[in-house]
Fold this sequence. Notes:
Layout: H1 2-7, H2 14-23, H3 25-28, E1 60-64, E2 67-70, H4 97-108, E3 115-118, H5 128-139, E4 146-151, H6 153-156, H7 163-170, E5 175-181, H8 190-201, E6 206-211, H9 220-232, E7 235-241, H10 256-267, E8 277-282, E9 287-290, E10 296-298, E11 304-307, E12 313-316
Parallel strand pairs: 2-3, 3-4, 4-5, 5-6, 6-7, 7-8
Antiparallel strand pairs: 1-2, 8-9, 10-11, 11-12
Amino acid sequence: MEAVAARYATAISPALVDVIRAAGPRLARQFVPDMRELETTPQERSDPIGDETHSPVKGIVHRYPDRVLLMPTLTCAVYCRFCFRRETVGSAGNLSPAELDAALGYIRAHPEIWEVILTGGDPLVLSVRRLKDLFAALDAIPHVKIVRIHTRVPVADPERIDGELIETLQLTNKTLYMAIHCNHAAELTPHVAAACARLSTAGIPLLSQSVLLKGVNDTVEELEALFRTLTAARVKPYYLHHLDYAPGTSHFRVPLDQGQALVAALRGRLSGLAIPTFVVDIPGGAGKVRAETSSLSPEGDGTFIVRDRHGTEHSYPPATALE
Ligand SMILES: *Cc1c(COP(=O)(O)O)cnc(C)c1O
Ligand code: SF4
């Protein structure tokens, strides 16, 4: 553990220690260091999805025209062993005031930026004072309409979602969304569900992001339980991510075709409300794409062959325009 902790940031929050005690090894794998992290396969790279190639200033990643990532801190409440930013999280702390000014200056100077995604690290480890200052700065940029917070804090430290934090989030004049990182139904303890209820009652729409992980959630039963539990906690499953090629994560990797089969199996047994989009990030920085198998194949004459959830093929006719 010491050798791994010397290489990668390591921390487990008290709330997640309780989850691991109650739920066992499949939960522990996400957070407890493993010797296999010291081995890197040829596909794995330090910047797996090419954040650096799209970073115009420190703390900003601008890959898609209408939205940027803003990373005010690289600190997290827990360090996930499979994190795609594992080469950077836990190392540098917060952006300095000058760096944050420069990052906000970039957003101010780019009117095409409609949405700011606060990520890191975990933006909700910042003090209420820092969050207030950050939201006040974003509030003063009229072309930014949406602020989205990507966080693991509601799971890793649900007590942090207290009245003071919620009041702070309610001060902004932007439309706020929160995407919560959660990979297993056992992470959604009654305390976590209560934190989600506080956020939802405060008018903050909640989404989830999950990563498909070998030995953690790679069965159709576990995925189904995860997405049902999230949806029942008023969290809309948003993305299921195929694991990126971050260094030392091969013991977590589910082959892409197995991921596709798991997601296809969900369609037949789970409400559409509870099904996230399965996505993969193209190594090097070309962005996210849908990773699901297509149930439509073109015939060439405008007809499509459509496969239903039992695998039976049907013909879908082309449209005829009325003159
Ligand atoms: C994933 C990602 C986003 C957000 O993508 P959505 O599909 O809008 O959730 C934005 N910017 C970067 C650089 C990303 O990697
Ligand atoms: S909370 Fe998110 S950013 Fe932090 S270690 Fe886990 S996956 Fe990485």
